[in-house]
Amino acid sequence: MSEHHPIVIVGAGPxxxxxxxxxxxxxxxxxxxxxxxxxxDGSRAICWSQRTLEIWKRVGVAxxxxxxxxxxxxxxxxxxxxxxxxxxxxxxxxxxxxxxxxLQQNIVEGLLLEAVExxxxxxxxxxxxxxxSSSTDEQATLTVDGPDGSYVISCDWLIAAxxxxxxxxxxxxxSLIGRTFEDxxxxxxxRMTGTMPTERWFWFDPPFHQGRSTLLHRQSDDVWxxxxxxxxxxxxxxxxxxxxIKKRIQAMFGDDIEFEIExxxxxxxQSRHLENFRHRRVLFAGDSAHQVSPFGARGANAGxxxxxxxxxxxxxxxxxxxxxxxxxxxxxxxxxxxxxxxAVTTQTIDFMTPQSDTDLALRTATLGLARRHGFxxxxxxxxxxxxxxxxxxxxxxTADSAVFEGDVELGGPxxxxxxxxxxxxxxxxxxxxxxxxxxxxxxxxVPAGLPPDLRVVAVGEGGDIVDISGxxxxxxxxxEGCGVLVRPDQHLAARWKSVTIAxxxxxxxxxxxxxxxx
Amino acid sequence: xxxxxxxLAIDDGDAFYEALRVLHDGKTPHESAVLNFRIILLLxxxxxxxxxxxxxxxxxxxx
Lengths: 518, 63
Fold this sequence. Notes:
The complex is a heterodimer of chains A (518) and B (63).
Chain A: E1 2-10, H1 14-25, E2 30-33, E3 47-49, H2 50-57, H3 62-68, E4 70-72, E5 74-79, E6 82-88, E7 100-102, H4 105-119, E8 122-125, E9 129-135, E10 140-146, E11 149-160, H5 167-171, E12 177-191, E13 200-204, E14 213-218, E15 223-231, H6 236-239, H7 242-253, E16 260-273, E17 278-279, E18 282-284, E19 290-291, H8 300-318, H9 326-352, H10 357-372, E20 436-440, E21 455-459, H11 471-476, E22 483-486, E23 492-496, H12 501-511
Parallel strand pairs in A: 1-2, 1-11, 2-8, 5-13, 11-18, 20-21
Antiparallel strand pairs in A: 3-7, 4-7, 5-6, 9-10, 10-11, 12-15, 12-16, 13-14, 14-15, 16-19, 17-18, 20-22, 22-23
Chain B: H1 13-22, H2 29-61
């Protein structure tokens, strides 16, 4: 038996499921292969970022995740018994999505699966393992083992979202560049009725776990993530013994604490990524392409952004509306993001696991000062939490010809803001899926002769939507007559103080990967 | 910003040197290292970014 499909996705984790949903939203069917016979067992990833929620909002999954999960935005860092640093991830109001929602990965996958079933064009095959894969410049071919035996599938494009131990990556002969760190960490997800607030709490050198660090983070259904730093020379079997974990939890919450252990895992930090996320007809996304320390929630959230970045480019290439080289910019942009996430999380690792007496002395000095003095608090690093990547220097961006003072950066996503209009109450409801020109002014002021395949949204009196709180203007840093070109993934490709047809045409061509033709 | 590398900006140099030295009396090497880093962090925040880059450059060039 042999079959051919336009798109096959390997891996039905959050990244593969999100990619399939994004494709379905563009009327692109896909075949989704998963070696498991149901969603993940343990909770694994728990923190879903604002940008991830904004992406899921477009496929109808954000609200179910918010409803089912716990919303949070404040983090506290303790040194011994004292508060050393506190951060608020969404200090300014005016966003549709919260800073973060915590929800067990398996529950998130269940919600994504409901959307996958409802989409109707996603052929999800459980218990199907890729045993062999290869790719030419024309197509990729997979040999798979399914419930009914072995068969071959070929496809025009293969999305490899098959995780850290990616078979597709192995078969392509590619390896991740980077490091594995020695320190071991214990994740224990426990079920207990706690009275702690819904905040991220992190301890350096607490009385209950001296000389090491601990993270406490709430999930849904009274499940709490407790992550203990264990050090280098520990025996994983001893440390995952339930009695041993019980002692650690009791030291933290008192001997009377009643709890059940939901899931336990020992891990070490990985800081690695592929040098190129595209290999012929294979596109790597998520953990198959990059792995970082979990303190910062920069793994799965980066993977969701991979999927978002990839799908519109794949759609344009498959429609012959863009050159195949547009897919190389997927690699350019997301390798840039992976490198940034790797650099940021490596700084966290260096703070969390000092490797020398000098490193430890510097950290002790920092934590000691932070306990008493505000200036030292921002130096305390227990994880810098995931934010949307600004693709600085992207080949798809048109360099600014004027200074924009807003919060939105060229190459970064448009920031949400409340608006009045007929299609939703938020700015992000009006951009995405196709190229959009946001224009500051009334509809009648929009210059005539813009490309017909560019959707124009006029913002202002007499326009399509109204900037009701002034936050659109503040965040975009724009004024009357300005125009902003937004990509299908809601990232900003170009902006002008004064919109000209020639400028928009060139900006649009560049954003579609046709810079030379422009 | 140019960093003052030519003249001492402290009134009584010997007294300052002595004060800095005795801060470390009775301290283990680790405790001394922590104290030194506390001083460095406080001074760094006092002088700010621009002078700091120059100071780090001069310090490493003076080995």
